[in-house]
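Notebook entry, structure prediction.
Reason for the run: the old model in the group folder had no record of what sequence produced it. Starting over properly, with the input documented here first.
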Amino acid sequence: MTDGGSRVSGRSAQVRHGRLKKSHPVAAFLRLVGVVVAVGVLSTACVGAYATADVLASSKPQVHLAVLPGRTAVPVPKAPEGQSVGEVNMLVIGTDTRSGQGVYANPGETAASAGSGNNDVNILLHISRDHKSISVVSFPRDLEIPIPSCPTASGGQSYSSSKAMLNTALSRGGDEAHGLSCAVLTIEQLTGLTIPYAAAVTFSGTSAISTAVGGVTVCLATPIVDDNVIPALDLQAGEQTLVGPTALSFLRSRHGVGDGSDLGRISNQQVFMSSLARQLVSSKTLANPFKLYGIAKAATENMTTSDTLNAQSLLGMFQAVQTVGLSNMVFLQYPVGTDPENVNRVVPNTYAAQQLNQALVQDTPLQLTGTTGDGAQDASPSTPATTPATPATSPATPSSGAPTTPATTGSAPTATLPPSVTGQTAAQQTCSKKNG
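New structure, fully documented this time:
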């Protein structure tokens, strides 16, 4: 995609940017996993009726998502009892609001972001129609892209921007509900997808969920030290189990990982999310309805969701997730390069973004060929940078406008993304690191 008339080459995608004064919030994918898994299991358990109703009653008022001009709302697939939904596109945003977040008792911190706040974490969850692959795409908060006109809390429309930071979308709605809808419209316009599901989560949710899970064990290749988060981090290299506020600080940290930019923070978050996915699969968490109930309860108390998310749709998502192996769950960063007009911001890497967008719209499984990103490294130097879910194919060439697909008989087509796209699979064990 071209932003501001500029084409960004793949070579410029590996850049440092955005050393801002404040650290911002955490990726919220773990909360989604908790809700989907918990509601699905509890719905089939003997306490399912009560637990599901209680979990849903804990959530905030739901949001009806707007539709981009020229588009017609697509009916959301329904999941009859015992069956799963089809393709799923869901946007999960993390708001940096300090309002009602007890950890920020200092008036200066509260004033830094109040009300609905900014959508400083933006994660797209894509579950394929055949339920054989999952793509989890993180969009940098500093990404400069067009933002459409959005419905506002006052009943009017916000102004559109030909180029603005992605994390301003939430504040344009006037409240969290309309802001969530605006964030969805922005990502729909960027990717070409229709996104019928959405959720917004807070700092408190991250802390509560990590506690309910029992902590997440991550690998640190270097010590992680950051005094710019609350509580401050001082973690030694090696395996560390992160719980509560410490997990929140780890996921919010920029100065402690990579080169101090938001791009390094994204790859650090992917270390956490992939570790969480492996932990949920390998442990008995998925078979423990009482523990899952605690996870779901903690999540929904700190979450605003679209009105398309209910017990039926969540159960369908849970059933879909169950069929996806760890090697077919891909975490990646939306491909970007330095904004030629501002070195502290990024714009889409035109070629790589087109490849990714087309693969998502066509519901094609993704295969990575790039590195794990600036804030992470493979746990074993001898292990390949990525663990492809299917047999390797040659990277797409710039002369082709469509994702590369292998011709292997009997294997599902995959989109081989350019090396400028960073990320990892859930099966790949990685460690967080600090450069320098």
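Summary: The first helix runs from residue 29 to 44.
The old model has been moved to the deprecated folder.
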